[in-house]
């Protein structure tokens, strides 16, 4: 009875080895698959932990497409106009109060030539207007209406110049949102072309085109809103300055009329 059991021992060993080998072979693919799944799960978890990828300003600029180039030019032009108007639209450079005080003293003495020379030595909008009026003054045959007409004609020309540069801010403020809207239309057309060609499943391409549309709209607003704000700001400031010019020139004309009447 012991002999058959001993003969069966190699068989048992063979079966055991086969079972161990089979188990090892079967477990290898499963282990590799588990490792891959674990790696993928880890990657997804890391991506979720990292959150959505943030874009830099340069990336957003590039995503805006062609419309960002004219918007860049408009923003540079608008910024330059704002800086220029801050320097130019001020009371002192336009009113030149030091020169007008000297002109007033000269007119009190009926020294028209001295008043003209002061105007020519201190060029500014208000002195140019006064100089035009002085050119029509004839002390021996004085006509206040001719002087008044000369001042009005010169005022229209002199005061229109600074307002042109203020008005360009309105152009920038109006054009920027329109260019942004044009970029939006371009981006949406591209998005619909992607849907037509690849279907709605190409989410990445759709997101890129829609992002272009929204970025151009936002950029147009960012450029346009400050431009319109500063347009009205400088327009109001210039309006106050021009009203003071009218009063200064009127006072000088009154001084001239009074001096001529006193001489008579």
TrEMBL record:
Protein name: MotA/TolQ/ExbB proton channel family protein
Keywords, sorted A to Z: Cell membrane, Membrane, Protein transport, Signal, Transmembrane, Transmembrane helix, Transport
Boundaries of every MotA/TolQ/ExbB proton channel domain copy: 124-245
Keyword Cell membrane: yes
Main location: membrane
Transmembrane segments: 66-87, 163-183, 213-234
Lipid bilayer topology: Multi-pass membrane protein
InterPro entries registered for this protein in UniProt: ExbB/TolQ_transport, MotA_ExbB_proton_chnl
Subcellular location: Cell membrane; Membrane
Family: Belongs to the exbB/tolQ family.
Superkingdom to which the source organism belongs: Bacteria
Signal peptide region: 1-21
Species, as recorded: Coraliomargarita algicola
Taxonomic lineage: Bacteria, Pseudomonadati, Verrucomicrobiota, Opitutia, Puniceicoccales
């Amino acid at each position: 009875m012991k002999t058959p059991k001993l003969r069966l021992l190699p068989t048992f060993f063979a079966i055991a080895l086969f079972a161990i080998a089979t188990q090892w072979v079967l477990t290898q693919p499963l282990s590799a698959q588990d490792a891959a799944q674990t790696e993928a799960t880890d990657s997804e978890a890391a991506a979720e932990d990292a959150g959505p990828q943030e874009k830099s300003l340069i990336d957003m600029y590039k995503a805006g497409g062609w419309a960002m180039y004219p918007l860049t030019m408009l923003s540079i032009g608008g910024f330059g106009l704002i800086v220029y108007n801050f320097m130019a639209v001020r009371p002192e450079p336009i009113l030149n109060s030091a020169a007008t005080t000297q002109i007033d003293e000269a007119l009190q003495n009926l020294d028209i030539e001295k008043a003209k020379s002061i105007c020519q030595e201190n060029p500014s909008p208000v002195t140019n207007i006064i100089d035009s009026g002085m050119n029509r003054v004839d002390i021996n045959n004085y006509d206040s209406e001719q002087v008044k007409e000369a001042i009005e004609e010169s005022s229209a020309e002199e005061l229109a110049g600074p307002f042109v540069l203020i008005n360009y801010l309105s152009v920038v403020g109006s054009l920027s949102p329109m260019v942004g809207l044009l970029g939006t239309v371009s981006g949406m057309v591209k998005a619909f072309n992607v849907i037509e060609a690849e279907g709605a499943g190409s989410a990445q391409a759709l997101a890129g085109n829609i992002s272009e549309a929204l970025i151009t709209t936002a950029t147009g607003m960012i450029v346009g809103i400050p431009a319109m704000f500063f347009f009205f700001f400088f327009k109001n400031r210039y309006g106050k300055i021009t009203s003071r010019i009218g009063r200064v020139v009127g006072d000088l004309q009154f001084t001239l009329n009074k001096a001529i009447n006193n001489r008579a």
